[in-house]
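$ run holo --ligand "magnesium ion" --emit C-alpha cells
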Amino acid sequence: MPIVDDDPLDQKRKKIFSVAPLPRDGPLHGYLYVVLEGATQDDIAQMLQRDYLKPLGLWVIAGGALVAILGGLLTFAALTRRMKRLSIALDAFQRNDFASPQGLLPLPANPAGDEIDRLTAAFNQMASRLTAHMQALQQTDQLRQEFLANVSHDLRTPLAALRGYLETLLLKEGTLSPQEQHNYLEIATKQSERLTIMVSKLFELAKLNTKQVTLNRESFQLGDLVEDVVQKFQLSAEKRSLELYTDVPENDPFVFADIGLIERVLENLIENAMRYTPPGGKIGLIMTVEPQHVMLQVTDTGSGIVGEDLPHVFDRFYRGGRTQDQDSGNAGLGLAIVKSILSLHGTDVTVTSSKGRGTTFSFKLPTTSAMA
Ligand SMILES: Nc1ncnc2c1ncn2[C@@H]1O[C@H](COP(=O)(O)OP(=O)(O)OP(=O)(O)O)[C@@H](O)[C@H]1O
Ligand SMILES: [Mg+2]
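-- output --
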C-alpha cells in the first residue's frame, strides 16, 4: 500500500511510497521500496525551489536595502536634529553675550551616553562656567563703580574744606586777627591730615584686595605683640580717661602669621574701641589659648552697635549710618582692612555687640605647631 513516511533515500524528508519485505516468504533480507516518479519529483521540486528562491532573494535584498536606507535616514535625522539644537543653543548663548544658557538646552538624560550627549553635557558645563564668570565680572564692575563714587565723595569733603579755609586766609589777608589766622590754619592742617590718613587707608585696602600683598609669615608670640601695641595707645587712652588693659596667659604658644599686618589689625580694633567708648570706659585685649589656635578678643564698654548695623560694619565705607556723623573724618575703612588681612591669613573676624553696653571683636590665629 502506498504510505507517507521517511524517504528511504533521505530520512529527513517524507515521501509517498509502497514497501514490501524481501523475500515474501522465508528469512527477511530486506525491503523493496517503490517510489513512483521519485527522481523526477525531486528534480521538479528542486527546480521549483530554485525559481522560487531567486525572486524571493531579490525581494529580501531590496527590502533589506530599503530598511537600511530608512534606518540610516532616521538615525541621520536624529543626529542632525540634536546637532542643530546644539548649534541653535550656541548661537543664542552668543547673542545673549554669554549671560544665560538656562532654558536654552535641556540637559541630556544620559550624560554618559553617545558623543552628542557628551558634547551637550560639555556645552552646558562650559556655558554655566562662562555665565558664572560673566556675573562675577559684572559684580566686580559694579563694586568698582560704587567704590569710586564713595572715594570721590570722601576725598572731596576734606578737600573742599581745606580749600575753603585757605581761600579765606588769602582773601582776608591783613584783616584777620592772629588768633583767627591760627584757627583757620589749624583747621586746614586737620583736613589735610584727614586726607592723608584716608588716602593711605585706601591704598592699604586696595593693595590687600588686589592680592598685591604677600604674607610675610613668621613665628611669634601674639601676647608680646598685644603688649607692645597697647603700650603705644596707653598715653592717649589715659588722656581720654579710658582704662586700657590686657589679659594674656603666660607662655602663650607661638602663632604663625604676618606680624606687621596683625599689628594693623590690633591698631584698627583699638582705635575703634577708643573712638566709640566714652570717657570712664574700659577697653580690654583678652587672649585665650585653644588646642590649635590662639583667640584674641578686643572688648569695650562703649556705645555698642545697633543690630541692623552689625552685619555691615565690615563693609568698606560703612560708618554705622544713623549713629555716626557722616563727615566725622572716619573713612569707614578700618574694619574692612581688618577683615581683608585676616582673610589673607585664612581666618575671620566676628563681632558681638549690645547697644549702650559695649562691643567685642574676636579673631583666631593658628599656632605654629598646628601649621606644621
Ligand atoms: N568698638 C566699636 N564700638 C562701636 N561701634 C563700632 C566699633 N567699631 C566699629 N564700630 C562701627 O563700625 C563702623 C565701621 O568701623 P570702621 O573701623 O570700618 O570705620 P571707622 O572707624 O568709621 O573709620 P576708619 O577706621 O576708616 O577711620 C564705625 O563707623 C562704627 O559705626
Ligand atoms: Mg575704624
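-- notes --
Residues 3-36 form one domain.
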